[in-house]
Design goal:
This protein is α/β, with parallel strands linked by helices. The protein is built from 14 helices and eleven strands.
Length: about 350
């Protein structure tokens, strides 16, 4: 049995984040002076997770597809465990772009009054589920249990809380209720599950497959079953608004690199090898063959961000007390994406009225 993949500690402290923001000008990542013509950035700092749902980032880095598209702009990368911590870094100027789940992106956008970021491309759909102990067969049997989510307010945390609410089960943002939700690092959650300390988790791939194969868990709810056409956004590519305004050429290059990585994932065998190679570089560990094969079978990769689903995601967050009031108008800027898609002979994608 493989141990959980270690996760890099995100840049959390205010001092580090402030320093990163202050030094952004020196790396060419800050907004250009007011009135100056946009220019390519000297460097772009991109955040991502070591998850299969972030496979375009993993493959794009390993195969050099992101750097190739960026040309002379240096690609710098940072790993995170969950969206809220990554959004902290993006908002503080410690990174310029993020592979991230929809919920933290939405929350940041609304809290900033539409100023913090723009979603510029889709990345992945599907690949999240509620996994539980084998003797739990229904929602009613979850009463009195403890279920993990990656982090309070992240995409899977919101999905779990909303689903439990729809089953008539009360939860609390501070813990307790009919079901105790314990925001926990994914690797630690698997360890706790194997030790019998928690009863399940709502997690993204490859952790669903890790729980099933390494932890003998079973899938109680595949999140895809809760959405029309069994399709829901899991990961998008967002950039800070300031960076987009200062360096639209660099953003388009990043979007191109992401599209190239999505295309490269069409070969499952090569995708598995490349994902594992980057995981090895990042964490020192790889996923078992059966784990990565199962994970890839449950995730789809697409540059369409499924913008039409975002109002529903806001409704879900509001229902569990995790929403900020405001308008999503302007959340998406798909100009670069649709230019890339046009060049590739693909149809334009819609912002769902949120562009």
């Amino acid at each position: 049995m493989k141990k959980g993949l270690p996760v890099r500690t995100p840049l959390r402290t205010a001092a580090v984040l402030a320093l990163a923001a202050a030094t952004a000008l020196l790396t060419g990542c800050a907004a250009s002076a007011e009135g100056a013509a946009p220019t390519p950035a000297t460097a772009i700092r991109v955040g991502y997770f070591d998850n299969v749902t972030h496979a375009p980032a993993l493959v794009g880095i390993h195969d050099g597809l992101l750097q190739k598209a960026l040309g002379k702009t240096e690609l710098q990368t940072k790993q995170f465990n969950a969206g809220p911590a990554e959004i902290e870094a993006l908002s503080a100027g410690a990174i310029d772009a993020a592979y991230i789940g929809p919920s933290p992106a939405i929350n940041s956008y609304l809290k900033s009054g539409g100023q913090s970021l723009r979603i510029v491309s889709g990345v992945a759909t599907g690949g999240a589920a509620l996994v539980v102990k084998g003797d739990i067969t229904s929602a009613g049997e979850l009463k009195g249990t403890t279920i993990a989510s990656p982090q309070l307010g992240n995409t899977q945390d919101v999905a779990l809380r909303y689903w439990l609410t729809k089953q008539g089960l009360h939860t609390s943002l501070s813990g307790g209720g009919d079901v105790t939700i314990a925001p926990t690092d994914n690797a630690q959650a698997l360890t706790l599950f194997q030790a019998g300390k928690i009863d399940g988790a709502w997690v993204p791939e490859p952790w669903v497959s890790r729980f099933v194969i390494d932890g003998n868990a079973k899938v109680l709810v595949d999140e895809a079953s809760l959405w029309p056409a069994k399709r829901f956004p899991t990961t998008v590519l967002a950039v800070s608004t300031a960076f987009l305004k200062a360096h639209p050429q660099t953003v388009q290059a990043l979007v191109q690199g992401n599209a190239d990585a999505v295309a490269a994932l069409r070969d499952p065998a090569k995708a598995a090898a490349d994902i594992n190679a980057q995981l090895k570089a990042d964490t020192g560990k790889t996923l078992a063959t059966d784990v990565i094969a199962r994970a890839l079978d449950h995730v789809s990769f697409d540059t369409d961000p499924d913008a039409a689903a975002f109002p529903t995601l806001v409704q879900h967050a509001a229902a569990v007390g995790l929403a900020t009031k405001g308008s999503l108008k302007g959340l998406f800027d798909l100009t670069a994406l649709n230019a890339v898609r046009k060049t590739a002979g693909q149809a334009a994608v819609s912002s769902g009225g949120l562009g």
